[in-house]
Amino acid sequence: MPLEKFYAKVSAMTANKINTMKFSPVDLDARKKLDFKAGDTIRVWSKIAEEKSNTKANKKIEKVIKFRLQAFEGIVLARKHGAESGATFTVRKIASGVGVERIFPLYSPNIDKIEVIKKANAGRSKLYYIRTKAVKDVRKKLRSVAHSQMESVDEENVKDEVEISKEE
């Protein structure tokens, strides 16, 4: 067999192997087709590794890594870098009255699935102003609560003063 035919066969075989090999555990086409943008409410299911150590009869400690799924649901503040390999998106939620933000890589193998819960029409592509808007709303609520409590305390003081003046 001439050397040229041999190299042609080998290159054809390696080309077929490369085309059938999967380089990523993530379905890239499905992630590219995801249709969410800033303002949408999404639920991101991420894999969390939990490490447990088991002791066997012969007293060897064996570490077992198990994965569990944890959901992070919130509003998408921004989506960056389109459909490139380094694409990311930022999700914000309020947990126990505190704003929590996470930046997820779009093609991360640690993300199991992304669910779009609610679509929204946002006027901008980056909604970073929501951070300060949320703080202002919380402050207004705190002021109104504090203000109403102060009014009730003032009314009690006025009643006490009126009763004292009547006794005199």
**Weakly predicted, low-confidence segments:** none
CATH architecture of the largest domain: Roll
> Tell me about the biggest sheet?
5 strands, antiparallel
Mean pLDDT: 78
> Structural class of the helix and strand makeup?
alpha+beta
Summarize this entry quickly.
The protein is an alpha+beta fold and 168 residues long. It folds into 2 domains: 25-127, SH3 type barrels; 129-168. The chain is built from 3 helices and 5 strands.
Tell me what the structure shows:
- This protein is an alpha+beta fold and 168 residues long.
- The chain has two domains: 25-127, SH3 type barrels, CATH 2.30.30.790; 129-168.
- Helix content is 37%, strand content 35%.
- The chain has a five-stranded antiparallel beta sheet, covered by helices on one side.
Layout of helices and strands:
Elements: H1 3-20, H2 28-33, E1 41-55, E2 61-80, E3 88-95, E4 98-105, E5 111-118, H3 130-167
Antiparallel strand pairs: 1-2, 1-5, 2-3, 3-4
Which terms would index this structure?
single chain; 168 residues; alpha+beta; SH3 type barrels; 2 domains; five-stranded antiparallel β-sheet; 5 strands; 37% helix; 35% strand
